[in-house]
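User: Run a structure prediction on this.
Assistant: Running it now.
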Amino acid sequence: MCTTAAYNLYFLFGIGAWYLSRKAGNGVPETVLALILVAIAMPLKGLPHQLGYMILIAGFAFFLAGMAKLEKSATFFAPALLVRIGNASYTIYLIHEQVQGLLLKVVIRSGLYGVLGARLSYIVVLAGTVAIGYVVYQLVERPMVRWFRRRYEASAKPDPRFSVAA
């Protein structure tokens, strides 16, 4: 019997969302289908083999594809804050586990967890993780990308010492 972690399938849903977002259309059908799938999935989260979650993640994938198409068709414009977080998403993805673990320890040891409770503590840790990820993006990834881009563009230009005179 072959089994795989659901996370691998979630990744495939993400690839599917990217692929679908590149296809023609304005994104309305994908967004409507996403809302339907999410509504269906919510009461089904207890199904065996995480089938309810699979439907939910498929809904999120269609939502991402639909919103990307809506933005491309100038029907919808993402708020600037979401664009900034989207730009920093790779950095957030790379560091989120370590930062979440650290922030959760801080929240627990500081006594905030007892005051806020589990749900609010989660929101504080999530917001803190995104904020720290954005700061790391601004201080590390963005300058590094600029540096590599300048270096690549400079190396892509022909060296005048070796150009052939016409």
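Residues 112-156 form the longest helix (45 residues).
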